[in-house]
Amino acid sequence: MMTAKGPLRVFYIADPKLLMCCDAVPIIRHRACLTHSLITAYGLLDKLKVIPSVSASEEEVRKFHSEEYVDFLKTAEVNKEDVSEDEFGLGFDCPVLENMWMIVKQIAGGTLTAARALVSRETNIAINWCGGWHHAQRDSASGFCYVNDVVLGILELRTKFDKILYIDLDVHHGDGVENAFLFSPKVVTLSLHQMEAGFFPGTGDEKSIGLGKGRYYAINIPYKAGISNKQFIHLFESILYNLCEVYMPDAIVCQCGADVISGDPLGGANITPEGFKSAIRHVLNLSKPTLFLGGGGYNKINAAKLWTLVTASILNIPLSPEIPEHQYFPHYGPSFELEVTAGLRKSENTEKSLDDTIRSVQYNIEHLAVLLGKK
Ligand SMILES: [Zn+2]
Fold this sequence. Notes:
The chain has 375 residues and is of the alpha/beta class. It contains eleven helices and ten strands. It has an eight-stranded parallel β-sheet, with helices on both faces. The protein has a two-stranded antiparallel ribbon with strand order 1-2. Strand 9 (251-255), helix 9 (273-285) and strand 10 form a beta-alpha-beta unit. Zinc ion binds next to loops.
């Protein structure tokens, strides 16, 4: 998009406090700094407009989260000894953190800052790799997520944009976001994820389509372990364009969970950053105001590589395949290469299983088309 002052710059949300708060979550310690340092080392900051995040207010966090849960988050740290296992989802996956309330507000604030930049039309694309906490529910923490910044960001975008498309590429089902908008025809949630017995969170089959007025506005594309680049892109492009023709979103939020990349200790997909970039190109092809968020990603080096590559891809800048010298350079050994190669695991998805999934999702999109008077 051009303005009298030239093309709009891509906004990139980062500041030391936001990075520190994101890095305070134990399972992804240092990940935000690794990512930001690699983006910096490749010289991409010069091409971005770097925006510091503004911490969310209590009132803003309460726009989605329940009164009881917010009260709990505010006081849990002080009452740490009295917090019982699983109270408000706090426990094994989501331990009580030091400065928890401050961290929650900062993480929510990063995505709200990005969403506001899109609402004010200062930019068409905003990136917050410290966001994407899609599992947090209205009244509980879940799957390492304490606050659902995605939902808060979508609510902010809704102040300007009528119809939002949420795309969730994380290897896990975007359950918290789907549940938040389960009854809403103003937000389509589209989640591609691994789904099989025992795989977190266990929801998101293609028959979960939303409820009430939101029926047919939730779209789930489950796949089995070992999905390849080719299969993933086939699934995504078979649904995305058809859906957008029917729904015609005004803005897009894309959660880029890096746990979908090969070699993730919690994921089971076999996608490479190059494959993931093809999905991002499809999202960019839609030419809508878009908010890109992070998410899962427990191989922290691969997460840093992916998000650096996606940032460069959004900017249309090629990157040298060799990791540049910088503070965290030794972490990238022994290859010191940006590339992540696919693993050897065989995909459990077959052409037939993928086609069956596509057919059943297309059937649901037909229903959506009827609801919207397109058929
Ligand atoms: Zn995940």
